[in-house]
Automatic annotation (TrEMBL):
This is 3-phosphoshikimate 1-carboxyvinyltransferase. One of its GO terms (molecular function) is 3-phosphoshikimate 1-carboxyvinyltransferase activity. Its EC number is 2.5.1.19. GO terms for biological process: amino acid biosynthetic process; aromatic amino acid family biosynthetic process; chorismate biosynthetic process. The active site is at 326 (proton acceptor). Its main location: cytoplasm. The gene is aroA. One of its GO terms (cellular component) is cytoplasm. 3-phosphoshikimate binds at residues 28-29, 33, 174, 176, 326, 353. Catalyzes the transfer of the enolpyruvyl moiety of phosphoenolpyruvate (PEP) to the 5-hydroxyl of shikimate-3-phosphate (S3P) to produce enolpyruvyl shikimate-3-phosphate and inorganic phosphate. SUPFAM superfamilies: EPT/RTPC-like (SSF55205). Belongs to the EPSP synthase family. CDD domains: EPSP_synthase.
Amino acid sequence: MSHSHDNLSYLVQPGGTATGTFRVPGDKSISHRAIMFGAIAEGTTEVTGFLEGEDALSTMQAFRAMGVPIEGPTQGRVVIHGVGKHGLQAPTQPLDCGNAGTAMRLLAGLLAGQNLAVTLIGDASLSKRPMRRVTVPLGLMGAQIDTAEGDRPPLQIRPVPTLKGLHYTLPMASAQVKSALLLAGLYAEGETVVTEPAPTRDHTERMLRAFGYAVVEQQSAQGKQISVQGGGQLKATQIDVPADISSAAFFMVAAAIAPNASVLIQHVGINPTRTGVIDILQLMGADLTLENVREVGGEPVADIRVRSSVLRGITIPEHLVPLAIDEFPVLFVAAANAIGTTLLTGAAELRVKESDRIQVMADGLRALGVEAEPLPDGMRIVGLGQPNQPVGTAKYQGATIHAQGDHRIAMSFTVAALCAKTAMQIHDCQHVATSFPGFAQLAQQVGIHLQVSA
Ligand SMILES: O=C(O)C1=C[C@@H](OP(=O)(O)O)[C@@H](O)[C@H](O)C1
Ligand SMILES: C=C(OP(=O)(O)O)C(=O)O
């Protein structure tokens, strides 16, 4: 995708807070899947609450380029006129997945068995991310996908008439790989069974069922096994996308570390495979409660209230890592403001996201004067909180930070600025629009002293 601004910077002055009642944009994982599944379903699917961010729009554009009529988005409403499982047309150009790993990896699985020639490309960040994790198991199913040197994008999918089902144990806890294989499994002969070593987000499983496709789950000694049979059909449905807990997380941490803060974030998806950030913040002592817990369209949602909190450093339980995988950049900011040391291990996957989130966050925190030691699979952070100090006391210097093209790094240091003694300058913030359009305006609205410059 082309970006409207090539180099956005944020200047955040100290002394802000976070207060108010608001909703953050729609869940990115669910928005990608709603387009993909709606496109290959029979009939018309209506989506509300869709994330109008660049990542989900890349997915939408890709299906339009394969001949799927899609209306919208208009205020989060999208109407997809499904073409059925075999109705996609070969695109005349490479499909541009932009910054979105989810788009590229899930599309690889969904397209592998369609007898179409398709090339998937991405931006500079995505072009550095590993793809063997999907191309190897898809190859075992009979797919023919070429990568560039070192297993990186572009992916060239060659037409093959059919795939074979596969029994596969994921070498890492990855919902993207799991989903790619289940989607390929819809087009494979027989059964495809994916075993996950630890629970990962289960939006694919839930949404396949919402589209009337049977998904069987059972526990085994190796972990949960998820199976689909090839050859079935998806039937159009309605999808109400909840607000993205990964976006809400920035304001959860902002409210926890800022003085006199209180936020109520409405209609947030609290699928248990996504709530690691809530558990971790509560273990750190955050004043965080769930209100109005309800179920919307097969996904649990709640309003999340967070107030200024005395946070304490913890050793993060490893089983929570995949359940909070995208929230670690901002959780590191919480740790920097806590009393005592926080230790994260078992999170090597953070090194292969939009940036190396361990190195980039450690470098940024050190620039603020925080002791942050990157580990091969995590980080040790010595928090600057002091007992008996009021919440929100400024603890470190502001600094100039480069977000390295990573939306979550840019937003995390915006939150960190709440407890800085001097201004924070953050460069390379344009990718915030991939997951959180309107972030800067919302930050200003809640009381963060943020100015945007191009
Ligand atoms: O399936 C998904 O929608 C996602 C899975 C996760 O990636 P991995 O599968 O690489 O862990 C997560 O980091 C990403 O933001 C979205
Ligand atoms: C890792 C992320 O997304 P993706 O893998 O889709 O680029 C993210 O949004 O933090």
